[in-house]
Amino acid sequence: MEENVGCSMNSYAGDYEMAPNEVITDINTSEILEGCMIENEIIAEPSTMEQNNEHFIVDNVTFEDEIVEQCKVIGSVKNYIPKVGMEFETEKEAHAFYNYYAMKEGFGIKIKSSHVRKSTQELCHVLFACCKEGFTNRIAITQYSRPDTRTGCKARLRVKLTDYKKWRVTEVNIEHNHQVTPRKARFYKSHKHLDAGSKRRLELNNEAGIRFNKSYHSLVVDAGGYEKLSFGEKECRNHIDRVRRRKLAEGDATALHQFFCRMQCKNSSFFYLMDFDDDERLKNVFWIDAKSRASGGYFGDVITFDTTYLTNRYNMAFAPFVGVNHHGQSTLLGCGLILHETKESFTWLFKAWLAAMRECHPKAIITDQCKAIEGAIAEIFPRTRHRLCLWHIMRKLSEKLGGLSQYHAVKKALENAVYDSLKIETFETSWMSMIKEYDLAENEWLTNLYEIRQKWVPVYLKDTFYAGMSTTQRSESMNAFFDKYVNSQTYLKEFVDKYEMALKDKYEKEMKADFESFNGCPVLTTECCFEIQLSKVYTKGIFKKFQREVTGMCRCFTIDQVKVDEGIITCVVKERVFYQDLNRTQIKEFEVLFDVDTSQVNCICGLFYFKGFLCRHALYILNYHGVDKVPTQYILQRWRKDFKRSYNFDNCYGDNVVGVPVQRYDNLYQLAIHLVEEGAISQHTYEVAFRALKKACSEVKSEIEYTKNTHVGSCSGNENICEGIECNPWSEDHNIVRDPLRVTRKGRPTGKRNKPAYEKKTNKAKKLKTGPTTLSSHTNQHNTQENIQHMVQQVVSEPAIGNESFMQLLIDQVMRLGVKYYVQSFSKN
User: Fold this and answer.
1) Where does the record place the region Disordered (predicted)?
2) What is the pLDDT of residues 551-585, one digit of tens each?
3) Of 753, 286, 314, nearest to 492 (Cα)?
4) CA 356, CA 354: separation in Å to the nearest integer?
5) 521: confidence class by pLDDT, cuts 50, 70, 90
6) Which of 35, 567, 572, 819 measures 20 to 30 Å from 212, CA to CA?
7) DSSP string spanning 794-817?
8) Looking at residue 403, what DSSP letter applies?
């Protein structure tokens, strides 16, 4: 009976004999064979492990795996050409045989049709065909239609189930009407197979923040070339995308919310807030882990804040709060993602950070020049000293003043006024002289800078402790650090996962610095008593900075005593300052005050107030007057190696939710790698290892068959749900958080930080208007009362929080949920 070319399902007669009263029905091929080719596409159902495991997808022994194993066996047979009468144990073996033959000959295959007995639902007939069989039936050809690859090829192999349960070949056609290319056969889908080991490697690399192209090329190198791989770049990329989609099955923002809830269950000090627009879409989010929250009590006095980095597919700005720890390292003190950079968004974010820090305002904050940020800081941090990033301001010189005929002379005069002024009067004189000499009184940019000079000129700010920071460089270096983990296409939940990984990297560096500070003495460069003293006190990172001041004492000379007033001596210390860009040395004078009775010392350079340790000029005066130890008031507690913190690194973030199947896979993988390494030493060990592996594979396969037949362990695919998660705050009717709207930007998406006009020379993206801001913690309606009651109890237990500002924050959250009772009861208490 001649079949209709191009159909995907047909019934066949001819040499096939039906049993009495037997009815054969056409069925959907995807219901018969897992992993089969239908119209050049793979149909594969994910295992239960794939659906339930959040962190890693572990496939069961799939049909594709069996094909590969069967091909290895068939490969030892010289005559692999199919013939009528050949028999196989299963239809999968027949498929493996024909696929191997196709690989050798240079074409791809698919399952053309299959049939089952209606009475028993038993598969009884399968037709394998060349992937170019039939013709494409298109109603309309569009611009995006795929190229037509089908040629009506008649090559095929038909098998049927015999009465004694063997699969016999009943029809063979090996003639093709197109060219076959064995060397390029690996590009057909039927020959592409992404094994479990490669999947695991891709997922681990993705979690580690390794770029996909590097991850894929590592597989190519490991295999020995592209031609040795049984898969391509597209298969790898699709697998990673499938993993991401499974993790975010309920929506990106919902997955993010669930993650925050789990983290809060693991550690009650984990803090997060989510902000929504009028359509209940996520607009802003803030979170901080337990360790960072504890660190804020010690290192939250000085922070930098910068939002010039896009890290996710919604173009939400990454807004980290960055401080300086006792090693001088950057430390994360919370993180926010904001959809629109407006005053309302920054106000919400600063309120959230202040609530997490138990209303402890920072003493100083450094930001970029932004009206929205300045307005939010003035409202939320009124007692905080706000400093603008000096680097960003000076970088704008070429953009704002580049058109002046005497630009270079103006630039030099401006830099001298900003960097070399030790007194306010000196700066004022130098500035006015520059304005008058170059006729810049009408320059609007310089006029505006002068009006806000108290926020960016160093001479106005040297009396405030900034931990040595005058720019937002630490925030931008943090952005560069995150660039290793995320890009502009990163999902929100995926970003938070990578953020957690980046945090652990920072924690590891801090632990290593702790170890190095306690285990080893720094190398001394002089015999100065100050260097010897503080080498035993300061952490390694801070001591290196202080050591530069000690060695700088050798460039100081001549102490001129100006006056003595009630035991306070005013001296002038001269220093040879070398300007590397000018390749010359200049002698500068520094005024130092010294109290003979108390050994108090104060230098006009203000280094101690700015960085937290004495400058070379003060040390020179102390040494001149016979003081052999730095007074204790000049040794800040935050720089000491024995600085005591209440937090530890073991229980700050909680363990990852890792499913049992993943642990089993990793254990077996490590054992197998060890066996491979040992077995490859010699031919004898190779044979022993090979036999052991074959025996183990056979036993495992037998156990799988036994399990299927006896229905033992049917819940193994779900056991990770109860074993991997300590508590589950979600009920079946939990709220769905809607994903944020994606902000449209001009041009090609980028994962880099936003750059101003003077850096990228392009127009800035237009700002979008936002609706009213609502500060809220999106909580389950089912557990609303319990959550609010827990929140109130936590507030009551922490007296530092119980003030008007945090009370308003709590009310905002509770009012959003429509629960007024707890607010009233809390207000009464």
Assistant:
1) 744-780
2) 999 999 988 888 888 889 999 999 998 877 767 88
3) 314
4) 5
5) confident
6) 35
7) HHHT-GGG-SHHHHHHHHHHHHHH
8) T
